[in-house]
Fold this sequence. Notes:
By secondary structure, the protein is an alpha/beta fold. The protein has seven helices and seven strands.
Amino acid sequence: MFIVDVFNIFLGGRKMTTQCNINTELSNIINVLASIWQTPDMPRESIVNIVDEFNSYDWLLLASMDAVSLWGPNSGKFIYKQREVMINSNDGYNSRVVGFYGDKEDRSESELSYIDFNKHFYVDGLKEETKGIARDPIVLLELLSYLKYHIDSIAMLPENLRQNRFDSIATRFNQPVGYLHNMVNWLSEIK
């Protein structure tokens, strides 16, 4: 809870209460993040081999984290329902549904696609029309691992150094700074 409280200062005092009803006991993502952190130079092929073994919980959790990082909301809860995750914001204004389309070649209707793994997800509740965003789950896992295991030290930096660190992380992982901020808000969803 300390990390959330300290980071809350950085984000301007926004309340960041999150709850997770996803059965994370069935997810391997937390173990993958720990492995990436413990082996900083882990070859991409090794991570690909691990991701090849992901189950539906893993993919839904990863796609849900990606969706909230891309489009928000800033805080809320994930509610797992078979092949989809409902994302409700704490203010009740935004809601998203991230659902699994399955393994298929045609991704024209999906909002998020993880091409190398042929996994496609829809995201209902977006204000703008967004289709066919191709994402790299390996980069997302590396970024999640980095943030999960470094956010406490980043949060303790003075504000100008903290922003510089976020800028360098965004550049390193080729993601917008706002994406990182949203991802940090939702880190507690991955247990």
